[in-house]
């Protein structure tokens, strides 16, 4: 599992792990200029895709 150490310090390790996946995809979408709506980069996933 990957997570941001600063997120873990602020929110806890389990929460930081949960935050990592959507943060990765939003950054990926921004880098590739995809899924930009209403002035923000977005991502969506279902629970099984996050396993």
Describe the structure.
With 51 residues, the protein is mainly alpha-helical. It has one domain (5-50). It is built from two helices and two strands. The protein has helices at residues 5-11, 13-31, and strands at residues 36-37, 40-41. It has a two-stranded antiparallel ribbon. The protein is globular. 2% of the residues are buried.
Protein traits:
8% strand, mainly alpha
Kindly provide the radius of gyration, computed on alpha-carbon positions and rounded to a whole number of angstroms.
Answer: 12 Å
Q: What is the end-to-end distance?
A: 11 Å
What is the typical, i.e. mean, pLDDT? 90
N-to-C series of helices and strands: HHEE
Structural class of the secondary structure composition?
Answer: mainly alpha
What is the count of DSSP helices, taking H or I runs of 4+ residues? 2
Query: Sheet bearing the most strands, described?
Result: 2 strands, antiparallel
**Which percent band covers the strand fraction?**
5-15%
The low-confidence runs, each spanning 5 or more residues with pLDDT under 50, are none
SSE layout:
Blueprint: H1 5-11, H2 13-31, E1 36-37, E2 40-41
Antiparallel strand pairs: 1-2
Short account of what is shown:
With 51 residues, this protein is mainly alpha-helical. The chain has 2 helices and 2 strands; from the N terminus they run H-H-E-E. Strands 1-2 form a two-stranded antiparallel ribbon.
